[in-house]
Write a structure and sequence with these properties.
about 35% helix, Ribosomal Protein S5, domain 2, four-stranded mixed beta sheet
Length: about 200
């Protein structure tokens, strides 16, 4: 069984569109050093790490002269890959977790199953096209990209909200808290994979 202090991963991605470096410690305290070139995305990833209690370093550069899409997408892909690698065989984890997070008038729920099967369903309603430098539509795309490489089932739904910044921030905080709950060790099943298939990686 992998112990909590071993649940770390470093992943890099280098393409003609982006360069991304992610260091992740699943069992951290919420320290984040994030530099993506997109201020709003820095804020969202920092909130995600802080409320998930993950230690996270993200350094990225991308073709922002075109738009933010490639950079935001590729960071989410690399972050998901880092979670997948850090969690290893998933033995002993709770596996499922959810969080309901308010931020002023906004209320967002995220549920996670670290199932080994990537899936994402999002129901977020933004009123504008952009949040800072980021396209509002990228919030849902980031969640889908993360789920695809983290190999998790992810559901995010907005229950209330009128301010786009609040909706997006509540979503990322809820994602962090739900992942923290799902990846926590359960001492009752130490060394066992929480699946009737006895695997969450195949």
């Amino acid at each position: 069984m992998r112990m909590p202090n071993e649940r770390r991963a470093t992943v890099e991605r280098d393409t003609a569109e982006t360069r991304v470096h992610v260091d992740l410690n699943v069992d951290g305290t919420g320290r984040a050093e994030v530099a993506t070139g997109i201020g709003f995305y820095d804020h969202m990833l920092t909130a995600f790490a802080r409320h998930g209690r993950f230690d996270l370093t993200v350094r990225a550069s991308g073709d922002l002269e075109i738009d933010a899409h490639h950079t935001m997408e590729d960071i989410a892909l690399v972050l998901g890959q880092a979670f997948d690698e850090a969690l290893g065989d998933r033995a002993g984890i709770v596996r499922m977790g959810d969080a309901l997070v308010p931020l002023d008038e906004a209320l967002v729920q995220v549920a996670i199953d670290i199932s080994g099967r990537p899936y994402a369903a999002t129901n977020l309603q933004f009123t504008g096209d952009r949040i800072g430098e980021a396209p509002a539509e990228m919030v849902s795309h980031v969640l889908r990209s993360f789920a695809s490489t983290a190999k998790v089932a992810l559901h995010a739904r907005q229950l209330a909200g009128a301010n786009d910044h609040h909706i997006a921030e509540a979503t990322m905080k809820a994602l962090g808290r739900a992942l923290d709950a799902a990846s926590t060790y359960d001492s009752r099943i130490a060394g066992e994979v929480p699946s009737t298939k006895e695997t969450l990686t195949a």
